[in-house]
Specification:
By secondary structure, the protein is of the alpha/beta class. Strand 1 (643-650) and strand 2 (653-659) form a beta hairpin.
Length: 927
Amino acid sequence: MAGWLVTPRGMRLPGRTGMTRVGGGLALTLCVALGFAAVRLWSQWDPRPELPALWLSDASTRPLEVRLSRPAADAYRPYVPPRARDAVPPPVPLGALSRLEERGDTHGLGLSYLLHGDTEQALAYLTRTPPSLDRDSDLAAVALLRERPDEALTLLDATLEAMPDHPQARWNRAVMARELGLTLLAATTFEAVAAKGEPGWSDEAREQARALRSRLGARAAAWKAARDAFLARSRSPTAPLPVEAAARFPGLARESFYELLATAEEPSRVQELWPLARVLDHASGDTSVLQDTVQRVAALDFTRRAPLAREYAKLVREEHPSPEGLVERLRQEGTARDLLLGALLRAPSVARTQEELHALMHGERDPWILSRLAQEGARLDDLAGQESQGGDRLREALEECRARKLHLRCVDLLVRLSQRATASNRLVEAEESARAAWQEAAALGEWDREGTALVMLANATRFQVRVALARAYLAESLARQPDDCIARTQVHRNLASLALMRFRPREARQEMEEALACGQTPGLQGAWILADLARLDPRPSDEARLKAELARVTPLRENAGRRVLATLILGRFTVDRDWSEGQQVLRRTIAEAEPLLRTNADARDARAVAFQTLAVSAGQVGAFRDAMDVVAESLQVSVPEGCVLAAAVEGERTVAVVRGPQGQLQGHYDASRTEPLRDDLTGLVPAELVELLRGCSRVAVLAAPPLDSRAGILPPDLAWSYRVGTDTHAASPAKPPLHVVVSDVEPPSTLRLARLPSAAEADLAGAQRLLRLKGAQATPEHVLEAMEQATDIDIHAHGVVDRALSDATVIALSPQPDGRYGLTAEELRRRHLHGAPLVVLGACSAAHLAPFLHQTKSLPQAFVASGARAVFAATSDIPNDAGAFFRAVRERIQAGTEPAQALRAERLDWHQKQPGIRWVDKVLLYQ
């Protein structure tokens, strides 16, 4: 294998010193040199003395379950997990490792350290190894052992895409899937390993797959047997009532109980449900709620109820010709409140009010019914734009269902909470709720709800652009429910969206056709995908499908933010066919979004994408001045005087426009991007546009999200800064100097952050009125209060990503008594920095923002929005001695140099003193 071939390094031929001797001297020298060279070669290449120590090959079992790519480290031995978590690994063979070090075998060094339990050293050496599929597979093994599933799956998917039969990557992907609980995905992958017939490995893989399928298969079979028994009873009143199944699956049984009760056409059929009601009352701890319900319904007038029950049965089977008419008749019949509730829940297009739901609650004792009504009430809250109230209603319902032991209801509420959190861009919350729903559904054995929760997990990770993990969740969900039309539609629709994220329109088209194959509508997400495919891989049917779906977007089905998204989708579809008409629709999107921006995430997303589409579509038709104006408008700034770069991206399309020192305007449009944006934007702006800016003393960069939190959009030898914020801030009054320095923070130990060195006294030389917040004093509230009057601010702390606190990077400070430790962009925007300070964020990756939808909410932008005149921040980790760099930049500014010019000058000085330095190029300036 290519990963096994290593070129020896460090060998030297004998050198010449002065005149070459002749005769015996030459022969002796040559023999000695060759002898030493032979000995050295033998010590480097003879594997016998180092194999057992390096690869633990003399052990009867292997120390790791993962597979490694070097044959000597991949010899099959059974895996036996260590008996104790703190088991001491065998000592690292330093002598053998030194020989690998001598010949530059970083790959071998990394694998040996990994086998000996040192993942940190393994990672250090493997990252220094030249790129190869073997190296990436081994890096994935390290990520797996370090419990980093996103990183592991991303590496493994890329390796297997390039080489589908890569044995170690395929094995490791099976192990990773099993550890994530993706049982069928793991079993299928192990079976692929078994099919290759590798000695030892295939047998173990076959046994792994058998065990996984056996456990999950028994659980699935039990649930499906219970479901089928209840379905049989609903189709034929003479079929046995599966009372025994109710004890194992009380949630499934209770749902079925209500449907059997509602469709019963005779009192005797209702009375037959009493044994089932008794079992379900016992399961939830209620004394007689359902038993009383049986007696109450059996006593009703069935001459009036029976015809409605027959109609309701048709509604359940999706055969009713007019659900709206049935609902109206049920509203007139006081003896059929349970049928009315069921019909309302099955016919969302029928208007209903909170008052009607409250009337249905009146006198109701059944906690299951009350929970369903609460969930429907939350949906009406969302449609009315009262998302906060709807969330509170759902959380209260969740607490109640836990108290009443209605476990399946709790799963459904968790799924709904995950959906709402995803729609609001609270993706950590969405992921946690979906994972809880999955775990609880699995504990209940509720097979169909497990698949639903997996799709919710995929949604939460998809919007965080964690593509490999989202695809894994979807693959598992599809494997569990291959015959469920609704589930299959959801999975393939999400896979189509992920394919577009990876710039694979043909794959997206195939997934979208699969999504529509069983007759379900595409949904709003599908309409968005169709708008993209109509541009990237068009079909004649796209327009009709898209417009039919948008016609279904009504106030009864979607809230105001989702209706703005529908307008956006129409605009994105139209602008590629008629630029003028498309512009109008996109402008309508922005206008519709405006009143909703403070409260609705969908509206904020729609506005951001509408501006992106306006900009790139202007570039497509050569209207480059329009593109520049649109980008400035999206940032809520005016196009500044002097040299300017404006840039925007959407999908595969990029537009860049520059105005040079003489006012000359030049633009470039490109629609050929085939990979997601990198953190470094070098090369995004064509060289000819960069050249036009060479004569500028400084350049204002207007960058639409998500470009505005990345380095490299212009070269480091130009003086440039991101122009952000609004033009509405009044000039701050002159303030006496106050230099606030935050350092020596004590973030929560659970974050496992390395301690940063204290701010060097030399870096603070010359500071007037110095206020230092250190240690326990450096809490978010103390820091915010001090910054309000500061004229200079230095923050020496780690930047962390905590989506539970903020969509932007969070600065980890010392915790307050209430436990809050993070300085967030959201809190900062609520303050005003009266001293118009110069801010240096010495936090690692303070400007970095993980890819997330279409908006940017970085800390530097929040500082500018709150009144800072300039903010310096890095998009990558910075060294501990970076204070000297920032001190020098500040001194230049205090001496009268414009901030962008000061940053450029200091960068160039550091490059001259330390050739090869790179982190200084990752320092961004926001003004």
